[in-house]
Amino acid sequence: MTEAKKSMFGIVDDFEAVNRLIEEADGTSDESLRREADSVLDAFTKEILGDFGGKADNYARVVQAADNRAAAIKEEKKRLDGLQKAEERKVKRLKDILFYAMDTLGLDKYVTDLHTFTLAKDGGALPVEVSIDAKLLPDDYRVEELKVTADKVAIRWALAEGEEIEGCKLLERGRSLRIR
Q1: Together in a domain, 126 and 63
Q2: Is 50 part of a structural domain of the chain?
Q3: Are residues 83 and 120 in the same domain?
Q4: What pLDDT does residue 176 have?
Q5: Do 168 and 134 contact (CB within 8 A), yes or no?
Q6: SS3 17
Q7: Which residue segment(s) compose the domain that 43 sits in?
Q8: Is the Cα dihedral 95, 98, 104, 106 positive or negative?
Q9: pLDDT value for 2
Q10: Is 177 helix (H, G, I), strand (E, B) or coil?
């Protein structure tokens, strides 16, 4: 019958037991206990350290393999990030060309058997252009932090209500291409 191989934890447990036996033997004057401890240590060294060496080598192989896989995944992630960015640039470029063509031809909407193309105004708040230094704006239209900036939300509301603010005007919404 073959003895089951010990795990790394089993080897460490055995080592700690032998260590305790050696400490007990060192603290006594009983010569027979010291000889027994030396004998156990020799047997442990021959049996367990051989097992430990093999186990340690196997652990090292697993660690190296995992490290190599992690490095390969990191490289693959970089490669895929590059591919993603390239595809995103391609989508933008193709949509820009289609947008330009439809805009030049005066087509706000075009329907095919497969898709509907629409040039639509961007949603959200109207863009605001502030062409003067924010410090020159009235207090109601500034937000003071560490630096003074224009309060574009307040300016947008005031301009939409017909108020005139020097250096500020509402801009047209941008347009984007939607494909369904």
Answers
A1: no
A2: yes
A3: no
A4: 75
A5: no
A6: helix
A7: 8-90
A8: negative
A9: 46
A10: strand
Split the chain (180 residues) into runs of 10 and give each run's mean pLDDT.
64 76 73 77 72 76 88 97 97 96 94 94 87 90 83 94 94 78
> Per the confidence metrics, is the pTM higher than 0.90?
no
Q: Which residue has the tokens 């080598």?
A: 57
| C-alpha dihedral (85, 88, 93, 95), degrees to nearest 10 | 180
Q: Are residues 18 and 86 in the same domain?
A: yes
Within a domain: residue 125? yes
Q: What's residue 1's pLDDT?
A: 43
Q: How many domains, in total, are found in the chain?
A: 2
| Pair 155, 134: CB distance under 8 Å | no
Q: What is the pLDDT of residue 136?
A: 92
86 with 116, same domain? no
On whether residue 102 sits in a domain, the answer given is no
Please report, to the nearest 10 degrees, the dihedral formed by the alpha carbons of residues 71, 77, 82, 88 taken in order.
180
Q: Compute the distance between CA of residue 14 and CA of residue 17 in angstroms, rounded to an integer.
A: 5
Give the pLDDT confidence score for residue 76 in this predicted structure.
Answer: 97
